[in-house]
Every structure is written in C-alpha cells, then in structure tokens.
Amino acid sequence: MLLNSILDPIIERALQEDLSGGDLSAEACIPESTIARAVAIAKSPLVVAGGQVFARVFELLGAGSVRFERVLDDGASAKGEREPIWRLEGPARILLMGERTALNLVQRMSGTATLANACVRAVPAGRATRITDTRKTTPGLRYLERYAVRVGGAHNHRDNLGSAVMIKDNHIVAAGGIAKAVERARAYAPHTSKIEVEVTSLAELDQATGAGADVIMLDNFSNELTIQAVERARGLVPRPILEASGGITLERIAELAAIGVDVISVGALTHSAKAADISLDFVLDRTAG
Known about the structure:
By secondary structure, this protein is of the alpha/beta class. The chain is about 45% helix and about 20% strand. The chain has helices at about 5-20, 25-30, 50-60, 90-120, 140-150, 170-175, 180-190, 200-210, 225-235, 250-260, 270, and strands at about 35-40, 45, 65-70, 75-80, 85-90, 130, 165, 195-200, 215-220, 240-245, 265, 280-285. The strands form 3 sheets. It has a 6-stranded parallel beta sheet with strand order 6-11-10-9-8-7.
C-alpha cells in the first residue's frame, strides 16, 4: 500500500506536465457529457505493478467521477495477449486527460517489477541470496520504483543517504583509508546503523574485515575473486554480510548465488528496466442523459 500523502505530489507534478495548457484535443471534439468505458491491457508478458497509482491519477482528475476496477492485483503475472489489467468508467474527457500520465507511471513500474521478478527467479533453488535494488533511481520516482521492486519479489537497499553508512571509493579517499573511514563512522553513526564498505580487491576486503565492517560490497569482482572473498569471510566471527555488485546479469545472478554471496544489488532494476507494454483502450462511448 502506497501512502497518498507521498503519491499525490508525484502524480500532480506529472499531470501538470501534460495539462498546464488543458487538453485541447479532448475539449475540442468530445462533449463534456460523454461517458466512456476503458480497459488497460497487457500487450506482452509482465508482472503487474501500480494499480493504486493508475486509479489515483483518475481520482485526482475526476473528483470521484471515475469508477475503477482492478482485474489483476499487483504482483500478478499477465501473459500478454491483450489480457485485461484494470477497467475504468467515467467522463471521457477525464479518461483521456489522465491516460498518458497513468500509463507512463504504471508501464515503468510494471517493467521494473517484471525485471525484479526475473532476477529473483534466477537465484538457484535452495539459495537464500537476496536481490536488491540501488539508489540509481529516476529522480522524483524512487518511491514508485522501489515499491515496484518489492512487488517483483526483490528487496530494497538503503532508501536514502541517511538510512545507513555506506563507505564507497570516494569516501575512502577523502577519509584517508578504509580503517579511518570505518573508525570514524563507528564513532559517529547511531548504534542501530550498520556500516558497509565497498571494496575493489581482496586486499581492500582484508582491510574492511579488519576494521570490523558489517557489510562488504564486492564491486565488480570476478567469479574467481568472489569465491576467494567468500572463503576468507567464512571463518570470521562475526561474519560480515557479502554483497556483490557491478555488471550483474541474469546468468551471473545464478553463478554468484551458487558461490555463496548474501546479497546481489542490481542497479538495472531501476535504471535500465524496459517499460512494460500496456495500453488503454476505449470499449464503449455513450452520451449521458
């Protein structure tokens, strides 16, 4: 469930992009009294995400004049072939005004959910490796994209810069090394915050484990290096969580999970997911009264 207090400003900004000058086409050729029915259909296989978002676009535009019916719930798989996802009935002008904004949002969300689901399914049976997103999200749409990741069965990484300590390459340079960065982070951060360190070599892995990092991100490690990293971490008490990141494909997810990493973060879930193919078709028009 998405919070309308966060969702509404996102939708309102998107609607403003389209409607700052009104809808000349609909106003010119559709009588105000015309009522229409429409159905959103899946034109290719996808995991549905964004039903609440789709409905809310028309709620905000129509002030209660649009009836929404959910055919498939978020997380359901649509096989394509023009399978119905959602249905609408209301003033034709309102449906036309909100059509593109609603589709733009749910096509992106469903595309992200579909890719997330494919990544989760790529983890071999019996492995507990967690698939997560990253902060490589579309500015202004993080709330929706991260929801879509969860709908697809994957997990979210830190929500924002204040959610956790994550020491990356530039932090290490600015702090004067991994040990100094971790020491300062440990002294500054709340006791509830884990400390993650990004490493690019086994030598840096040893520095991070020696400094007591809770989570270690293996950045662009080959499979061979990842095997060695898992072996080095196995005997540590407490053992740090190992996260693989960089150049992740569906094939590599299976390989990395089999090697034994705990987390695989996939930036492509939000920065490169292909928009799902969804369209809104009018199925009946009539003039009220």
